[in-house]
Amino acid sequence: MSDSFQKILILAPHTDDGEFGCGASINKWVEEGKEVYYATFSACKQSVLPQFPEDILITEVKAATASLGIASDHLILHDYEVRTFTYHRQEILDDLIKLRETLQPDLVLMPSLNDIHQDHKTIAEEGLRAFKFGSILCYEMPWNNLVFNTTCFITLEQRHIDKKIEALKLYKSQAHRPYSNPEFIKGLALNRGIQINANLAEVFEVVRWKL
Question: Which of 65, 117, 125 is nearest to 96 (CA)?
Fold first, then answer.
């Protein structure tokens, strides 16, 4: 895989989804010299806890993606309201087509088409429409996936998992989420590694694979 893809685009419905879904793989790809872009579609201002500034997730996503090694000019921020993506499908599709035309990525990462969160599902469905002629992988978010086909594994080293945890710790406004627990993140990577007789891994669904 490493030799097949040089420009990788992460589609994150909300500011931390890419880190949760494939943060360790992002760090590995950056380490390998891949050109990684991260496009997020909402900073969830409407659901930020009252003790934080409403735009806190913008600050946090900038810090977290930088921690993983993504260049600041490779971070693309959109400003849709959380839980309203279904009402803005055409605008989102237009944004995705613009990304396709300007970046021309070799590989796109997005939520699962079986993700039950309405915003995640919209990004997955419109992402498939926009990038259907290229390679697409869906990342795992167990708390939202009723089913998930474990058809692609990225093997990882401990340093990649450590970087994922470090990046997620920068989302202080999301620390109350149960899935932010570092032990859960470590355990999931260990579990996925055991499935392929490796130490650690992240898993993905293959939607399209173009070689």
Answer: 125
* Token pair belonging to 177: 């989420």
Residues in contact with 185: Cβ distance below 8 Å, sequence separation at least 6, in sequence order: 161, 164, 165, 168, 179
pTM: 0.97
Residue type, 7: K
Report the 3 state secondary structure along 92-105: HHHHHHHHHHHHCC
Q: Calculate the alpha carbon distances from 203 to 37, 83, 86, 138 in Å.
A: 19, 26, 27, 9
For 3-43, write each residue's pLDDT tens digit. 789 999 999 999 999 999 999 999 999 999 999 999 999 99
Q: What is the pLDDT of residues 153-191, one digit of tens each?
A: 999 999 999 999 999 999 999 999 999 999 999 999 999
CB 137 within 8 A of CB 123: no
Q: CATH assignment of 7-208?
A: 3.40.50.10320
Do 43 and 79 contact (CB within 8 A), yes or no?
A: yes
Helix, strand and coil percent figures for the chain, each rounded to 5:
45, 20, 35
Token pair for 13: 């419905």
